[in-house]
Structure formats: structure tokens, C-alpha cells
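Retro notes, item 3 of 5
We never archived the inputs for the cobalt (II) ion complex last cycle. Fixing that now. Sequence and ligand:
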Amino acid sequence: MPIEIKDADAIEKMRAVGALAAEQLEMIEEYVQPGVTTGELDRICHDYTVNKQNAIPAPLNYRGFPKSICTSVNHVVCHGIPSDDKVLKNGDIVNIDVTLIKDEYHGDTSKTFIVGEANVMADRLTKTCQEAMYLGIQAVKPGGHLGDIGHVIQRFAEKQRFTIVKEYCGHGIGKVFHDEPQVLHYGKKGTGPELKPGMTFTIEPMINAGKAAVKLLPDQWTVVTKDHKLTAQWEHTVLVTDTGYEILTHRKDDTIKRCT
Ligand code: MF3
Ligand code: CO
Ligand code: CO
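Structure as it came back at the time:
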């Protein structure tokens, strides 16, 4: 199946739901403090999505996922399940991944928050991962190739002596949550499908402080680093435009521009 090209109406709806997802991460920031549980963060996001944004939390019941957001703390790579037993403490890092549905379209974005005061490694890993995502986004332009994105992400992260998680990737997104293509966070320049205006997909690198290997916990969702070292992730939903990219889930705290 070829990669879907969105028309003007679909792009408008992707912009609208992307803005809601971005707003949700801005909203939750003040609650990410030592002492809060990830279960509480899930309830706040759920209620905000449903009652304030009149949108649907896509993760809830998606392939049996039990909560409305993913919360991945410290050595948890992705798909962490919020719990009332998981209390955040000073110095933890937590990725909060939100996906909303509005008018049938999905907006998917995540950010790694530092709880309280950062330690040096947590700070460096988190910033490197955000910067790697930005470099991937800046590689998006019509006529470029999907492999250009993975190439710059891998080169940058490995230069800082971090490792890239290979088992999970970004994805096409629209009416379908996880659509084609797979957006790898490693690879070679000039390889893969050509990027064309109207394509929408996520870029969501997971970068580890230790080895690249991951394992799935018996709950069949939580992915952790095998060596239990720290890991970070950032995610945006992007649109390929005539001139480059547009970040559909752009927030006020983003340090690159929404569009080129
Ligand atoms: N939001 C995640 C992603 O970036 C997917 C979460 S699926 C869930 O693709 F079921 F775990 F919520
Ligand atoms: Co996500
Ligand atoms: Co995603």
C-alpha cells in the first residue's frame, strides 16, 4: 500500500487534533512533581481530553491497553502503564505520551519531563533525545527520503555515545493510529520511500544511556532497557509540506519553529 497523501480537509483536521494533543502536554506539566502518581496523571489527562477538549484518548482500550496515556519512568522505554502505586520522586524522568482522536483523526506526541531537580545524566540524555528528534524533523522535505530521518537521528545520538532503540519506531498517522510507513530512528540517507507533501507521520526516537537492548515485561506492554539504565523519548506528529515540514503537535516550549 502506498503512503497516504492527505487532502486539505484531512490536513486541517490533523492540525486541529495535533493542537489538542500539544495543549494536553502543556496542561499536564504543572502536575509532574515529586509525590504525584502516574495513575493521577492519567486521570487528569483523561478528564481533560474527554470533558474539556471533547476528544477521545486513543490509547484507552487500544489493543487492550488499560489507560488513557503512557507514562514511562526512568528505565521504561515506552508504553508504561499508569498506576496509583507508581509515585514519582525527585530526579526521576518520565515520558508522557498522549494520543487524541478528534473528528476521526489522531494526534500523537510525547515529551520526557524531569521530576524536580535533574541529575547530570538524566539532563544530558533527555536533551540529546529532544535534539535528535529535532534533527529528524529538520530532515523532512519533499523529495527527501524516509531514511534521511533515521540517519541523522542515529548519527547524532551515537556521537554522544548513546544507543538507539531499534524495536519500536515512528509511524504514519491519520484516521489510522499506527499506519504505514514505519519511521525508523536509524538508517541510511537516500533510502526508503520518497517524502511527498501531504504525508503525515510521527518521529519518536527512544535513546538509551546504556546498551540498546530492550525487553517486554509480562504485562505485555511495558518495555524496559535490559540493563535497566536510563532511557528517554520525544515524539511529534509532522506533515510534509511543499517547503519542508510542519510540526502538527508543536508546543510553546518547543525550541524549533513549527514550519519551514
Ligand atoms: N502513543 C504511542 C505511540 O507513539 C502508542 C501507544 S499505544 C498504547 O505510537 F496502546 F500503548 F497506548
Ligand atoms: Co505516542
Ligand atoms: Co506514535
